[in-house]
């Protein structure tokens, strides 16, 4: 049967059951609606049997193997964490469907597959320390943070590369020096440095040669940290020094030196999001190195 619009189906009914006047024959109705006589008859039979003007629209083909209830159970299990991924969900909740089907249907309801992000394993003690630290500094303002000297070590490749680098060029200029990236075996070596940053500007950048131990770290602080404070006219008694929980930083040798200098140390919770603003300085340096 030719599928007609709702308006044409309504017109067939109006012509077959007019309010005033005599009903038209099937042939006459077909002429008015511009369809076959058999189509008119089938429309009338369908409306008479179902009582509906519109088509009984049912999905064609085989019904989906996962029902709405199945999808709700899958979503609830994923939100609760009782299943880890689509494979686990298929095994535990919908064994009648394949893993591929589960993946596809989850994507349709806004749960596509993603690569899991790696993060430090957080123990209850780590969470408790972070909570205490946040409570201690939550009311700090610019005045308190202005006193903090942030420090850290970082390593730089002498010939860094971040993968593909695009450049505008003409055809045949691929090997021009300005359109190439210099490459050396093993990236040309690395340089490890210690640095710090204050509210008055950056501090000394100290190159670390060899493997740093507690004694070397103490010597770096004595030379470069105190040198930075001297350059910026800061007193060790008036600053708050920040460094992370590296064993060398927490050694008795370093702790005794800091106490002797009357330097207050900012507690730093382990396995927490990095709040050290010097990381922005390292990122800037690395980006600049990639240009040379």
Automatic annotation (TrEMBL):
Which Pfam families does this UniProt record tie to the protein? DDE_3
GO aspect biological process, one term: regulation of gene expression
Q: Where is the SWIRM domain?
A: 1-64
Matches recorded under SUPFAM superfamilies: Homeodomain-like
Q: Where are the transmembrane segments?
A: none
Q: Name one GO molecular function term.
A: nucleic acid binding
UniProt-recorded name of the protein: SWIRM domain-containing protein
> Organism classification, top ranks?
Eukaryota, Fungi, Dikarya, Basidiomycota, Agaricomycotina
């Amino acid at each position: 049967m030719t599928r007609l619009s709702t308006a044409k189906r309504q017109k067939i009914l109006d012509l077959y059951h007019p309010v005033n006047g005599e009903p038209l024959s099937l042939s006459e109705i077909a002429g008015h609606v511009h369809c076959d006589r058999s189509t008119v008859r089938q429309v009338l039979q369908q409306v008479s049997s179902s009582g509906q003007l519109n088509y009984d629209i049912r999905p064609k083909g085989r019904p989906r193997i996962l029902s709405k209830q199945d999808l709700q159970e899958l979503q609830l299990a994923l939100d609760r964490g009782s299943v880890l991924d689509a494979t686990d969900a298929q095994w535990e909740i919908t064994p009648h469907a394949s893993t591929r089907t589960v993946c596809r249907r989850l994507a349709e309801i806004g749960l596509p597959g993603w690569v899991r992000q790696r993060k430090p394993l957080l123990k209850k003690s780590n969470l408790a320390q972070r909570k205490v630290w946040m409570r201690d500094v939550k009311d700090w303002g610019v005045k308190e943070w202005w006193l903090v000297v942030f420090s850290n070590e970082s390593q730089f490749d002498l010939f860094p590369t971040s993968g593909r680098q695009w450049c505008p060029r003409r055809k045949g200029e691929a090997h021009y020096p300005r359109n190439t990236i210099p490459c050396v075996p093993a990236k040309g070596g690395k340089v490890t440095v210690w640095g710090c940053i204050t509210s008055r500007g950056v501090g000394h950048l100290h190159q670390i040669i060899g493997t740093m131990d507690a004694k070397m770290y103490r010597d770096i602080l004595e030379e470069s940290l105190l040198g930075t404070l001297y350059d910026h006219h800061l007193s060790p008694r008036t600053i708050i020094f920040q460094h992370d929980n590296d064993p060398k930083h927490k050694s008795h040798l370093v702790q005794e030196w800091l106490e002797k200098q009357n330097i207050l140390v900012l507690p730093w919770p382990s396995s927490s999001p990095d709040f050290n603003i010097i990381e922005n300085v390292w990122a800037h340096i690395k980006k600049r190195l990639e240009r040379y």
